[in-house]
Amino acid sequence: MTDHTSNRGRWSGLSTRAIHLGYDPASEQGALTPPVFMTSTYAFETAEDGAALFRGEKEGYIYGRTKNPTQSVLEARIADLEGAEAGLAVASGMAAISATLWTLLSAGDLVVIDHTLYGNSYALFTRGLTRFGIRVEVADFTDPDDLARALALRPALVHFETPANPNLRVIDIAAVSAQAHAAGALVMVDNTFATPVLQRPIEHGADLVVHSATKFLGGHGDLIAGVVVGAKAIIDRIRGHGLRYLTGATIAPLTAFLLLRGLKTLELRVERHSASAAAIAALLADHPAVRRVDYPGLPGSPGHDIARRQMSGFGGLVSCELDGGLEAGIRFMNRLVLATRAVSLGDAETLVQHPASMTHATYSAEERARHGIGDGLIRLSIGLENLPDIREDILQALDAVTQTRGAVKSPLQEVRP
């Protein structure tokens, strides 16, 4: 297998690098696609050779839990796309976050998080870390004064998502990074929603970037994986500690292969997702069943100006609050025919979910209300279907909500037509 940093810097195009970087077919008997190395361990030429690998004096492979040649090509490509020195691929997005936290934090350390995170991330920080003596402070990262209050406590690390799950709040990466660094903290950004096609947080001052690679990076709903990228010294520590013995969350070689395949079409897919999502956001904004639309690309929406500065497009996620709360949300979801009721995102299929009862059920009702996650909030991951078909399905479901508003019968009693 070739040197996985080869070709770095030779090409400027994102898709070109996603397709070619870090692999030379000549190194593998002309195989156009990087092979899947289905092996758990690796042979050493001599005892001295093995000892040098264990001491870290030479690069190579020892055991499949920490590194595999297929995985190495993937890590080189995603790190390059994000503008990072190095990357680590693991078994899930939650594994990427947890392996990083267990590596970098110790009992007594403080972490500051934004108040709106993916539900399981929020649970990891507020219910998981705190069991082991790590303190967690929640702040509103869109409020400089509240962020300053939290940073005055001198955290070791700050973590946030932008756009955030599920209501697409936009956070100023450069401003938060500058404040956090002044307080001596590392900055970790979850870039799952934007992908490196639209946003590269390291260019705006972040130290680490994590992804649920299950989503847009994979793009086909057929794998679970995560990645973390950043400075090589930090990534090496996470591989050697957070992955090797703290979590053991190894990515399977075949999953790494599928992710490499997904990266080849990432730019094309994200462009299509984004164009369709912008059209659906406009449709939602004009419909009487919708109380509020959250989409960074809508002029006048909160965070729109920041998004224009740090993003080259606005992504494939749209959320909206339906007038009528829980019943309206359930009625809308049950009327969908083309779109699929499911909790993931970034797939070829349009996926719709209800955060209050699904991804953010780990929040209390009070926390959801405080963080802008209403009972009628719907999150739509706009897929790659033809836009007229997506529009027709969403419009008929919205019309059904409007026509039946105020009806006594609960939509929970209805059966999908």
Overview of the molecule:
Mean pLDDT is 93; it is low at 407-417. The strands form 2 sheets. A 7-stranded mixed β-sheet has the order 1-7-6-5-4-2-3, with helices on both faces. A 5-stranded mixed β-sheet has the order 8-9-12-11-10. The protein has 2 domains: 14-264, 3-Layer(aba) Sandwich (Aspartate Aminotransferase, domain 2), CATH 3.40.640; 267-413, Aspartate Aminotransferase, domain 1 (Alpha-Beta Complex). The longest helix has 20 residues, at 266-285. It is an alpha/beta fold. Helix 3 packs parallel to helix 10 (253-264), helix 11 (266-285) packs parallel to helix 15 and helix 13 (325-335) crosses helix 15 (387-403). The chain is built from 15 helices and 12 strands. The N and C termini lie far apart (54 Å).
Summarize this structure briefly.
The chain is an alpha/beta fold and 417 residues long.
Summarize this structure as a short list of keywords or feature phrases.
globular, PyrdxlP-dep_Trfase_small, seven-stranded mixed sheet, transaminase activity, 417 residues, Aspartate Aminotransferase, domain 1, 2 domains, single chain, five-stranded mixed sheet, Aspartate Aminotransferase, domain 2, alpha/beta
